UniProtKB/TrEMBL annotation:
PROSITE patterns: PROKAR_LIPOPROTEIN (PS51257). InterPro entries: DUF6287. Residues 49-60 have a biased composition (Low complexity). Keywords: Signal. It comes from Streptococcus caledonicus. This is DUF6287 domain-containing protein. Residues 94-126 form the DUF6287 domain. Pfam families: DUF6287.
Length: 203
């Protein structure tokens, strides 16, 4: 059977057209895949960059180190301000003569003193002390001066035990235990620093 040249040419042209169309589809498909992959890569890079920026921002603003440093700085400033306010009372005048006290002259502390617990003591020039909370008459022992305060002891002279500390702190002088300063005279009587919470002040 003979095939005419015209028919051969038609078959060849059809084959070439089909091959060209397939090649174009593959190329477009490859290009589309490349575009999608590139888009995905760009999206991932963008998300990663955004995540890194957020992490960096959080690390800078909310990290424990920075928070603690800031808190410590604020606390230190407040403590300094508080201490400054405590150590500088408005009035620091005192009528107490510590030098006279160590020389057995109690004139500057003689009189009535009371604390916030409702106890009142009366100090006499002969070192005798009476209290509204005690039946026995107490006596102040000879003392010494330290840090501008007068340190002594007080107790029932008829008893060998049961005495307590007796500390006189003039106005404007730091408390020897905690360093706080007041603009009034104080007397501490007790066996521990708990006495600092209930100082006697002049009536």
């Amino acid at each position: 059977m003979k095939i005419s040249p015209k028919a051969t040419t038609s078959v060849l042209l059809t084959s070439l057209f089909l091959l060209g169309a397939c090649g174009k589809k593959k190329s477009e498909s490859a290009n589309n895949q490349y575009t999608v992959q590139s888009s995905k890569v760009a999206t991932k890079k963008s998300e990663k960059s955004s995540s890194t920026a957020k992490s960096s921002s959080k690390a800078t603003e909310g990290s424990p180190e920075n928070t603690l440093a800031s808190s410590f700085s604020n606390a230190e400033m407040q403590a300094t301000t508080s201490q400054s306010q405590i150590l500088k009372p408005a009035n620091t005048s005192s009528s107490i003569d510590v030098d006279a006290l160590i020389n057995d002259d109690l004139t500057t502390i003689v009189g009535d003193w009371s604390n916030d617990l409702g106890e009142t003591i009366t100090i006499n020039p002969d070192r005798q002390v009476t209290s509204t909370h005690r039946t026995a008459t107490l006596q102040i022992s000879p003392g010494e001066a330290r840090d501008n305060c007068y340190f002594s002891g007080i107790g029932d002279p008829t008893q060998l035990v049961g005495g307590a500390g007796f500390i006189v702190i003039p106005a404007g002088v730091p408390n020897p235990h905690f360093g706080d300063v007041t603009d009034f005279d104080r007397i501490l009587i007790g066996q521990s620093v708990a006495a600092d919470e209930h100082p006697f002040t002049r009536n």
